Amino acid sequence: MSTAFPLLRTSAMRVAAAELIRKGLIEGKFRPGESLSEPALAAELGVSRGPVREALLVLAQEGLIVHNQNRGFSVPKLGPEDHRLITVVQLPLETQVLILARERARELDIRTLEEIKKRLVDISLKKLNALVHLEFHERIWELSRNPWLEAALRRIMVPFFAFTSMVHSALELNPQLLDKQHQLYLDFLQGNSTMTAEECVRFHFQFDFSGGGEFSATVTSRENETRSSLKPKPWQD
After folding, report:
1. What's the CA dihedral at 192, 194, 199, 204 to 10 degrees?
2. Inter-residue contact 204 to 187 (CB < 8 Å)
């Protein structure tokens, strides 16, 4: 019984340290390939090295950082090939989530997503906020009501969002494009889109590396098509 409280305290510090470092990674406070110093992080967080090391091991299991037995912990470097490989796995999962969420989304859900989108676009006038970006997608994942899909996407996409935050932190963003890529999701969820779920997802995540690229021409073409056959949600009548 006497050992329960020290263990609980250590566990709490590990969880808190992991959450703070995770937040820093997603916000782009570290650079791709940067080494993570346990002593420096411990000093910054005001804890001993033990909880910090345990926190880093947790984050390595989540795929947010890399653990090398000889060189310690570091921020991963992702390139175009990594983006392609992630997309191979992410595309069908996010597409399925979007389809399921469309069946379950209600007016309040749409209003919540619209508010998150507005915050994201407003913030992007200064920089991309990956935490808000992630919040938008997490809301949609939750709407799928499929915990397995949600867990799989979280494992794949949280490191991806963290990396894109690092990449875009030094780039000038296009708020109009950011607004469009998220509006495509909202239109689909409301039954107001001429695009398929897969097309919405492809456009959305192609932007994260290439700024939209040639796929934006497809979006513009689809947006110009007639919407007379669309069936809006009942609460939109």
Report:
1. -40
2. no
Would the pLDDT of 217 be above 60? no
Phi, psi (deg, nearest 5) at residue 21: -70, -40
Instruction: Look at residue 230 and tell me whether its pLDDT is greater than 60.
Output: no
Cα separations (Å) of 73 from 58, 80, 206, 208?
Answer: 11, 23, 29, 25
- Give the pLDDT confidence score for residue 66 in this predicted structure: 92
Q: Which strand ranges, in their side-by-side order, compose the sheet holding 66-68?
A: 35-36, 72-74, 66-68
From the CB of residue 195, how many other CB atoms can be counted at a distance below 10 Å?
19
Q: What is the mean pLDDT of the chain?
A: 81
CB 197 within 8 A of CB 98: yes
Place of tokens 């913030």: 123
Among 91, 125, 108, 118, residue whose Cα is nearest residue 198: 91
Token couple for 125: 């006038």
- Residues 6 or more apart whose Cβ sits within 8 Å of residue 54: 10, 14, 17, 18
Element (H, E) at 55: helix 49-61
Going along the chain from its start, the domains and CATH numbers come out as: 4-74 (1.10.10.10), 80-236 (1.20.120.530)
CA nearest 78: which of 206, 157, 156, 164? 164
| pLDDT per position as a tens digit, 51-97 | 999 999 999 998 899 998 888 999 988 888 887 888 889 999 999 99
Tokens standing for 61?
Answer: 């299991």
